[in-house]
Amino acid sequence: MIRTALRVVRPARPEAGADPVPAAARPVLAFEGVGFAYDGRAVMRDVSFRVAPGEIVALLGPSGCGKTTILNMIAGFLAPTEGVALLDGRAIAGPGPDRGVVFQAAALFDWMTVAENIAFSLRCAGRPRRERRRVAEEMAVLVGLAGREDAYPYELSGGMRQRVGLARVLAARPRVMLMDEPFSALDVQTREALQEEVLRIRDRTGCTIVFVTHSIDEAVFLGDRIFLLEDIRAGRFERFAVDLPGPRDAPENRLAPGFLSLRETIYRRMRHHG
Amino acid sequence: MSAATLEAPGAALAPPKAESRRAQGRLPLRRLVTRAAALGLGLLAWHLAASQKLDLGLVTFRNVPTPADVARAAWALAHSPKLGAHVGASLARVLGGFMAALVAGIGLGLAIGRSRLAGDLLLPPLEVLRPIPAVAWIPLAILIFPSSEASMVFITFTGALFPILLNTVHEAEAASPRLVASARSLGAGRAAILREVVIPAALPSIVTGAAIGMGTAWFCLVTAEMISGQYGIGYFTWESYTLQNYDDIVVGMLLIGLLGMGSSVAVRAAGRLAMPWTRAGGRS
Fold this sequence. Notes:
heterodimer; A: Rossmann fold; 2 domains; 10 strands; B: mainly alpha; MetI-like fold; ABC_transporter_ATP-bind (chain A); EC 3.6.3.- (chain A); cell membrane (chain A); hydrolase (chain A); ABC_transporter-like_ATP-bd (chain A)
């Protein structure tokens, strides 16, 4: 009975994690019947969802479940072979700074200082030097790196490098920030500090975030909604709404009853489908 | 890197690295003494063999100058106007050939590494030419180039080209897909990716190739000068043989060694200046 997987496109009834009805707010991001075939083999079929402005959506699942494929489509690295992926109502065509990606190992440019890394998108857009410096300094403050603008990446710890990765994406003022298992290579303390930082950044910038993770804890702590990808080939995934007391970045939330029960629910669901 | 990060997260990587660097930079006194003594022993053996005109049948030291003879000859050369002319001629040729190889090697290497069409067009002919030693080019080079000066620069170029080219190709091909994806998602076009990502990422390897290329450039130049030169340190060495100034042969050899070593060091120093992000042993 637990195996009754819910169809994505037409949920039988509105459930907790259903897309927020776009009454006034148009979705920032929408997938409409998106499918993807590689070498004639369907990797993904009939995926639909909508993401509201300022929302944090976690794509959760084991490796190979297709979560990175969804992220790569939003980023524009992959194009749907079926259906359409929309950003602000327009079909996504190729990568762009309005959808910057934070990668797992930060993927910093080692030959640029922290400030030059952060302002890279502005440099590509041909913005003048003074503006780049000003934005780099603002973003460094936002991610807690003030004073390290002129350091080179090799001088930074893993956590600080990932903060640069965040700032580099945020400096472009993206519509959606995409994160591909951004903290999985960090130690627990650093990872938790950065998760809290991401929630604070969302509160301050109102940035919409879609992130990929295989950690249930991370998905529950960070996400407003969680998409548990069960069988993306059949377009099946289950959505969960996270209901935790604010402020969301409070570390106590990791022990809140709502956190623990949702964690358990998702864990059981994943085990049954594993 | 990720494995190390798992074990020693955060800043814990820095201290051991700094320590091993210090250990490499400064040897304990006793080992320095041992090394100096080894050099001294070598000199002594040379002196004994040359001054006693040691004849072992298979090799003979009858015509070999002693260290003191060589030092006297070096002193004389240092005060002669010939030195500047010879060294100047060689340096000009090496610099000419090396700079041309640098431009061609990096240019062709980036094209081959980043474009499949360029690779298909350029790689097969270059692969055919690559195993031919630069020295084997000398007769043809003399026929092709009307001036012997140009033919020597060409030989030097041939020697320096391949180490630079191959190192550039390899790193340009290996440019991290994740870094390129990062750059694209931040708004970088093809030209910006090449300029801001691929070239800087390949630079450490290009510098290594250039330092090796500088070594081969000297090797090829000296050979070319012995055959077709007028002036130049290789010519000087060979001329000393034909004029039976045996002391000067060894002076010439030592000078070639010094110049070759000095210019490789200069290339590496220039590389470090151009790459502040790898200073202090940063990740490369």
